[in-house]
Amino acid sequence: MTIVVGYSPSGQGAAALRAGVRSARRRGEDLVIASYQTGDDGRGAPSEQEVGAALAEIDAEGIEVSVRPRTDADIGEFLLAVVEEVSASLIVIGLRRKSPIGKLNLGAAARRVVLGAPCPVLAVKDDHGVDADTRVGA
User: Fold this and answer.
1) Which pLDDT belongs to residue 129?
2) pTM, two decimal places
3) What span, in angstroms and rounded, lies between the C-alpha atoms of 94 and 54?
């Protein structure tokens, strides 16, 4: 069985990665990291070295990990395609912290994943200690 983690170098990406590693360790499953870059800076998905550095920070030793970089697809569609490809047992995504009124609306990609995933979805809030503009593991 396999767990998919939606990862971007951000606070929510770090939280999702941590939760995915904990779940993989507890369930004895492999981990597939569906990595993507957010923002309009034109950069592609984080490199495998950047993802590896983020994994080293959270002690993912002993877990079988593979990385799938984002294609040109919409983030939600990309994550769902990876889930289908590996027949995932769980997908873990990170969510931004929002104001009380903002909590009424999930982002478009998160909504697409929650409504379209053929497996359970674990949504975690971003890390308090990681600035959204700080690259995790870089």
Assistant:
1) 52
2) 0.80
3) 15
